[in-house]
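Quick review question:
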């Protein structure tokens, strides 16, 4: 059961194993080579005990607003990872978000995650991928236009309220910061590609 996501498909979150590692002192915000944190993966796969596991990670010190280098159109924060279900075959965002994912996102918002930062990272990721030919210009607000379940509507209200409370200046600052981070990631990627080319030339 620990290996199933909210759709009943095989996932890569072994909840008991994660708890054991944390109990032995593992870093709850430890990152992968692509900067994903355990909370990102819980959000992405949404196992049956996702909220309990997220609460456990946060209690152990995980950064609820940690950002990663987006591999697709899901943005950079755990909040958008759990509410932007990406089709693994097409890399396109699916329409409706399951109630389980809405519940996890609601938990993250209620725990105080930075919605403006998450929205900016999501928007910038989609703008970046649109430029590369496989994204679009959607924001969190447009993403949830189709949500009609009680869980979805409640989450929409929470996100809308959080963005309104953040105010235009805070949202603009978050957007500017996201744009700068993405610019730095592109620059690092180009530098990494040049380094690989140099290394290949040595052989």
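Suggested answer, residue by residue:
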């Amino acid at each position: 059961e620990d290996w199933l996501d909210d759709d009943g498909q095989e996932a890569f979150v072994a909840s008991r194993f994660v708890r054991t590692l944390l109990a032995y002192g593992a870093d709850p915000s430890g990152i992968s080579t692509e900067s994903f944190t355990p909370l990102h993966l819980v959000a992405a796969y949404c196992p049956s005990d996702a909220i309990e596991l997220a609460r456990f990670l946060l209690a152990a010190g995980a950064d609820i607003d940690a950002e990663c280098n987006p591999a697709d159109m899901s943005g950079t924060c755990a909040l958008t990872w759990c509410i932007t279900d990406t089709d693994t075959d097409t890399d396109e965002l699916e329409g409706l978000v399951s109630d389980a994912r809405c519940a996890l996102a609601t938990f993250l918002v209620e725990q105080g995650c930075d919605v403006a930062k998450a929205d900016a990272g999501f928007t910038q990721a989609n703008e970046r991928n649109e430029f590369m030919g496989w994204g679009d210009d959607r924001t969190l607000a447009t993403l949830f236009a189709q949500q009609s379940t009680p869980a979805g509507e409640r989450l929409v209200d929470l996100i809308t309220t959080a963005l309104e409370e953040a105010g235009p200046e805070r949202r603009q600052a978050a957007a500017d910061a996201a744009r700068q981070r993405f610019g730095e990631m592109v620059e690092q990627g180009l530098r990494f590609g040049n380094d690989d080319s140099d290394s290949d030339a040595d052989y």
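Why it works: The first helix runs from residue 15 to 23. Confidence is low (pLDDT under 50) at residues 1-6, 86-93.
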